[in-house]
Amino acid sequence: MFVDQVKIHVKAGNGGNGCISFRREKSVPRGGPNGGDGGKGGDVIAQAVEHLNTLVEQYYTQHYNAKNGEHGKGKNMHGADGEDMIIRVPPGTIITDAKTGEIIADLTSAGQTAILARGGRGGKGNTRFKSSTNQAPKVAEKGEPGEEKDLILELRLIADIGLVGYPNAGKSSILSRVSSAKPKVADYPFTTLVPVLGVVRIDEEKSFVLADIPGLIEGAHNGAGLGDEFLRHITRTRALIHVVDLASVDGRDPVDDYENINEELSLYDEKLAGLPQIVAGNKIDLPSAKDGLRKLERHLAKNSDRKVIPVSALTGEGIQTLLYSAYELLEGIPKAKEQEQIDVIEYSYEPIFNIEKQGGKYILSGKAVRRAVLMTDMENEFAVNLLHNKLKKMGIIRALQKAGAKDGDTIVVDDVEFTFMS
Ligand SMILES: Nc1nc2c(ncn2[C@@H]2O[C@H](COP(=O)(O)OP(=O)(O)OP(=O)(O)O)[C@@H](O)[C@H]2O)c(=O)[nH]1
Ligand SMILES: [Mg+2]
Fold it and tell me: Is the pTM of this model over 0.85?
């Protein structure tokens, strides 16, 4: 099965809670604090792995959780960090946030990794709250919750060359002749429904990846026959082999076919239309192909510097010439595309905080505020005091007052509610 788009849910590990603990030794009646910090939660990480070429693993497993950090313990023992969760994906996978549409990672080559969801920071143990004024702090931070999100994984095939042409032109026949890929071949249009990749081996050291996509028809760039879906798969190829049925088996004209397909390419993406193109005139074994070949040759001589390579996927005639030309062409094209691409994009802009009034309650949001509140143990008076100081320093208490909040009003952060005190 070829799976090129899936939705998954990822949850990074929560940070472990900091510990509240005091030394207890016979000789020391009231020992100092010795609560350790919580461990960091594990990250959820995507890694591009060679030889994978579908997202089928993610199709079957849609939930990925990294491990939580362990809680801190007494005797200043820190909790262990939670283990990361690694998601193995094929090179060519683009990962976007399902809610915001933001691209989180673009993994183009094997070995690249990207953090998809960050594990929460471990909470500080009470040892860290010791100060000259408070020798025995009865307070510790809770662990920060790990990030959680829905993601869309999308696979873009990374083929060197894409085969384009009308349905029935013989694209799949060519791919199956030149590689060990076995795409379905039949004499009805749209035999190929999903893109198929094959590795073409010229000799021991020379090879390239060829992509067979379903046939294109007029309006493909707009989605006719799902054409835009298929064109998307070849946007990263470095060259195209344009397969034209010279024998007009389906009653069309080779010159019109050639022009129409090129028109569809440029309407979809000028870059695609501008790729180096080899024209493979197929079905040369059929008598009516001779005429078609002459027409197309004449047309190309007038309108471009491209030449037709006459081939027959059926008899194998001309196929070697086609492959060598393709390989030579590739050698002349630097693999600049990979450098153009950004390895990992990680940006998100979030204001420090935001206040919104809703039904008499004040909803607080923003990364820093959420972190401060969610890491506070609301049952613990000391912790709540610390939080109050933090919110004050961040200017949030003032901002809440400005927004109309009075003592006793309810403040909401995610699913935590607490009472406002100025
Ligand atoms: N005589 C002859 N028939 C061919 C040749 N190449 C392909 N065919 C036939 O043309 C028909 C279509 O071939 P496919 O390889 O399935 O064509 P395609 O371009 O992949 O078609 P779609 O997947 O529908 O876009 C099949 O019946 C093939 O046997 C050829 O060189 N000579
Ligand atoms: Mg096909």
Answer: no
